[in-house]
Amino acid sequence: MDKPVLLTGAGGRVGQAILGHIGDAYDWRLLDREPLSDEKIPESVDQTNVYVADITDETAIRNAIEGVGAVIHLAGDPRPEAPWDSVLRNNIDGTQNMFEAAIDAGVEKFAFASSNHAVGAYETDERTPEMYRPHHEFRLDGTELARPSNLYGVSKATGETLGRYYHDHHDISVVNVRIGNLTQHHPPKEYERGQAMWLSYRDCAHLFACCIDADYDFEIVYGISDNDRKYYSIDRAREVLGYDPQDNSAEFTFEGEPLDEA
Ligand SMILES: NC(=O)C1=CN([C@@H]2O[C@H](COP(=O)(O)OP(=O)(O)OC[C@H]3O[C@@H](n4cnc5c(N)ncnc54)[C@H](O)[C@@H]3O)[C@@H](O)[C@H]2O)C=CC1
Ligand SMILES: O=C1O[C@H](COP(=O)(O)O)[C@@H](O)[C@H](O)[C@H]1O
User: Binding residues for NAD(+), per the UniProt record (predicted)?
Assistant: First the structure.
């Protein structure tokens, strides 16, 4: 990608995981509604490329997105328990605003931070907890219909559908990344579900780099590390994006200690 890449929600956990690993690899524009402290901004990024703006502010977004080749859209309310008024504003209206601005600016690729909670209701009482365990064969692969866990999941499924709409009608490349559970240094502790959908920081950064660099039309992929426990397939991410994850929650004890040090 020889044009700038706009990263929304740059100051949050996912944004910092990305910048911590590939902060020097692209010509970034960073956007967040909260000011970014110096330690959150890679040295290679000039202050003129940092935008403190809300994604529902059309004018501010249009300034930030002008001349951009790709968008990684993370900004939003990430809480599974978030109330409707917040996900409606931040996750649905905000995402639609980002797509409109992206189309007008001629953006080529748009990666949307979707969530495991868009499909959480597949985790039925009959399937759990067995589906969280190694060697269990149940897999979601991105071709299934959304079955949200909560209203936050509804907002993520809606964001995915907005991507489908803007791809079909405006020819922008869109990838919806259903992110699992991002934690730094070790998988979620003593949490089978979280260990099955663990996404390490370096795999997260690599996956979003693939979203910037690969050629695709419209995709839904799962964003997890190569965990032994898994009920999300990462085959599509490997095939289409070239995703090659390095981490696996099985390399840690259930309590989160690295096995080679346990
Ligand atoms: N952390 C995780 O494990 C997962 C995260 N996701 C998604 O990834 C995205 C990022 O999540 P996190 O980094 O964990 O959240 P976070 O809360 O750490 O970061 C979100 C960032 O977006 C900014 N933001 C929120 N609303 C905004 C708005 N209206 N305008 C501009 N900026 C706004 C916040 O200031 C914050 O810096 C979210 O969309 C979330 O739903 C999805 C699945 C799992
Ligand atoms: O979408 C998200 O999912 C992760 C994992 O969900 P959890 O219910 O197992 O915690 C969550 O931690 C994150 O905040 C959220 O944005």
Answer: 90, 115, 152, 156
State ipTM: 0.99
End-to-end CA distance of the chain: 42
The pair of structure tokens assigned to 213 is 């660099």
Number of CB atoms found within 10 A of residue 168's CB: 12
User: How many CA atoms lie within 13 Å of 119's alpha carbon, on the beta-carbon side?
Assistant: 23
Contacts of residue 229, defined as CB under 8 A and 6 or more positions apart, other chains included, come to 132, 133, 134, 192, 195, 196, 249, 250
For residue 221, which phi and psi values (nearest 5 degrees)? -130, 160
Gyration radius from the chain CA atoms: 18
- Nearest-atom number in ligand 2 for the CA of 117 is 1
Q: Within 10 A of 38 (CB to CB), how many other CB atoms are there?
A: 7
For residue 109, give the H/E element and its range. Answer: strand 109-115
In this prediction the pTM is 0.98
Q: What is the DSSP string of 209-248?
A: HHHHHS--SEEEEEE----SS-SB--HHIIIII-------
CA proximity to 208, closest of 84, 72, 109? 72
Q: What is the pLDDT of residues 161-181, one digit of tens each?
A: 999 999 999 989 999 999 999
Tokens of 109: 């690729």
Is 152 catalytic? The answer is yes
Can you tell me which atom of ligand 2 is nearest the CA of 193?
A: 9
Residue in 152, 166, 222, 243 annotated catalytic: 152
